[in-house]
Amino acid sequence: MTPTEQSHPVPSHDSVSHYSVVILESPFAGDVEANLDYARACLRDCISRGEAPFASHLLYTQPGVLNDDVPDERVMGIEAGMAVAARCDATVVYTDRGISRGMIYGIENAKRAGRHISYRTLEGRLFDIDGDNLNFSDAEGLEMGLHFMRQDIRKESISRQQEFINRYKDKELL
Questions:
Q1: Which of 56, 107, 142, 166 has its CA 20 to 30 A from that of 173?
Q2: Tens digit of each residue's pLDDT (9 = 90 or more) over 50-96
Q3: Residue ranges of domains in the chain, CATH in brackets
């Protein structure tokens, strides 16, 4: 079947300007197939929010590009991803499957660059960090954010932040 204007439309040039460009952080290593499926769902979630996501771990790990199991190639992929991240409006961190070492690197990079960071699950946004300001999307995000501020977790390491998020999800902090 030959593509037609009706079967394969393209947007008008004016309609793409409302998208914010974001770097997507989600796990890759470990259960790679499950993490790839999860990352694709995260991409879709970003697009549904009016964002144009970039996920270097989906692009650069394709066969024939870079091999994440080869240390030098993994580093090249992360560096290339951070070069793109420098041009993004925000970093979005999906936490349903935890925060990996690669994600920690990306979050730290966003902090150093002063880039907006949004922590999310596929069910919704937990909270956003803009410098020292926390913003919440709903009651659960507000409650978690209040705990976050009370314990001044913003100044803690990413692993301590992930521990906090996991404990919150398990309702240990309520």
A1: 107
A2: 999 999 999 999 999 999 999 999 999 999 999 999 999 999 999 88
A3: 18-137 (3.40.50.10400)
